[in-house]
Amino acid sequence: MSPRLAAILGLAAPVTFVTGIVLGDLAQPDAFSPANDDISDLGALTASASNVAMVPVFLAALLVVRGLPAVVYRRVLDGPHTAIAGIMQATSLPFIVAATAIGMDLGLIDAAASAALIGAGLLSVLVFPVGGLALLRRAAAPAADVPQAPAPRPAAGMAGELL
Fold it and tell me: Which of 26, 41, 91, 131 is positioned for an S-S bond with 111, CB 3.0–4.6 A?
C-alpha cells in the first residue's frame, strides 16, 4: 500500500466514525438525548482509586484477549511482525461503547465499569497504533542497515546480445 493511500485512509477512518455516530444519533428514538443520556460517566470513574485502576487492567485484558490470537500469524510472520499485528488488532472502541451501553441499559454493568472499559478502549485506539508503528520502524531499521548484494549481470547470450 502506498504511503499516500495509507494517509488518506487514516484520515477517512475518523470521519467515517464520527459520521456513524451522528447518523446513529439521528436514528435514535425521541426518548434518547445525547445531552442527557451519557454512555459513560467520568464522575463515576474518578469516584475512587479502584475505579481508575480498572482502566489499565482492562487495557491489558484488551491486549491479551484481542492481541494474543495474532500467534496464529507466527507461521507466516517473524516474531516482531507477529507482535506488531497483535498490538494493532488489539485496538477496540466502537464495540466497547456499544457493549457497555447495552450492558448499562440491561443493568448488567455499572457506570464506573462502563467508563473504565470505554477509557481502556480509548487508550487502546490512541496508544496501540503508535506503539505498533514504533515497533515496525524498529523492526525495519536493522533490515535497512544490511547491505544489499548487487544485482547479477545478465549472462552472455541473454539480454546482452539483444543490444
Answer: 41
Sign for the CA dihedral angle at 54, 59, 65, 68 comes to: negative
Q: Is the pLDDT of residue 129 over 80?
A: yes
- For the chain, give every domain's residue range: 39-141
pLDDT value for 160: 47
Distance CA 131, CA 133 (A): 5
Q: Could you tell me the pLDDT band of residue 29, with boundaries at 50, 70 and 90? A: low
Helix, strand or coil for residue 110?
coil
Q: Are 86 and 70 in contact (CB under 8 A)?
A: yes
Q: How far is 95 from 13, CA to CA, in rounded Å?
A: 15
- 136-149 pLDDT per residue, tens: 888 877 655 555 65
Q: What is the CA radius of gyration of the chain?
A: 23
Joined together, the cell numbers standing for residue 125 give 485506539
Angle at 133 between CA 40 and CA 71, to 5 degrees: 85
